[in-house]
Amino acid sequence: MHMEANHEEKRNAALKRALLILSCVLLSIGACGGPLIMRLYFIHGGKRVWLSSWLETGGWPIIFIPIALAYYHRRTTEGPSTKLFFMKLPLFIASAVIGLLTGIDDYLYAYGVARLPVSTASLITAAHLAFTALFAFLLVKQKFTSYSINCVFLLTIGAAVLGLNTSADRPKGESDKQYIAGFMMTLSAAALYGFVLPLVELTYKKAKQTITYALVLEVQLVMCLFATIFCTVGMLINNDFKVIPREARNFELGESKYYVVLVFSAIVWQGFFLGAIGIIFCASSLLSGIVIAVLLPVTEILAVIFYHEKFQAEKGVALALSLWGFVSYFYGERKYSKQKESEMKNEKEKEVEIGKKDTPETAEVSQLDP
């Protein structure tokens, strides 16, 4: 019986590890590809900020695919009585509220990307890790090591360095006011998403039902649905739906490629959100925030390569500080996990020794002693 429990525990740990790796891959695709495709839209004639924010979560129907696959798997093992959805009303309401906050964040971020080069926007977004750490501490009592504190500090300083010379990489024809507005909007988006990630983790902890990955997918579905509804209202007020056909005809890359950009943007951004919530489920909101921050220098370099964006001294300093922070965090986590393994091993050895002392043979010998 003990062997079976051990086997099941190892199997669950392996599945969770595989899911964590898959979530990291999805997050990598979304975190690097999402901003690049969004910037591609704006560079070649796109001007609709509400449309861009809508695309960040507009691909939510894609989530029905893994939900359907999970349901099919459960049905083959549990029979026809299995449920399609597990979500209860309190969790639905919490997910809807987080979805509306995500919709606001989508708009703030899209506005920033419309005004800033991708490399600059990406490094400003690195500041979200400081906010994630703060809210993770306040909401879910996240424990910190000296290494994780150092990581958060370096990444935040790296983002602040960019503010020293905000006009150096300003796109042509953009005023000081527009550029500063883009900078502040991006920073606000970073702060809000830094609050959303721990809030998702808190929702998992407070939910009065077992959190499985199938349920996590349902949470993501509801969050993206309500974020999309929020952005749809913005599009309606701004008359974006009427303008789309005209904007497509005037798009520099061609009308058909305009729609390809929109579709791929929606798909890639879903990878970002699925990856983020997957990492929160498998580990923590802080790790999710750190992985996003780790990918930001990659996005910055890709922007310099593909869009020939300027790479000033400030960006170099910010990139160096970011990389230093990443190395610091992962070194600390590795050291902490090794220490934890060593402590667990020592505890097991002590338990074995105590067990040997308490055996009947030992007890008999102790009774015979004078």
TrEMBL record:
The keyword Membrane applies. Residues 336-370 are annotated as: Disordered. Residues 336-360 have a biased composition (Basic and acidic residues). InterPro entries: EmrE-like, PUP_plant. The keyword Nucleus does not apply. It is a multi-pass membrane protein. Pfam families: PUNUT. Keywords: Membrane, Transmembrane, Transmembrane helix, Transport. Its main location: membrane. It is found in: Membrane. GO terms for cellular component: membrane. Belongs to the purine permeases (TC 2.A.7.14) family. This is Probable purine permease. It comes from Prunus avium (Cherry). The lineage of its organism: Eukaryota, Viridiplantae, Streptophyta, Embryophyta, Tracheophyta. The gene is LOC110751938.
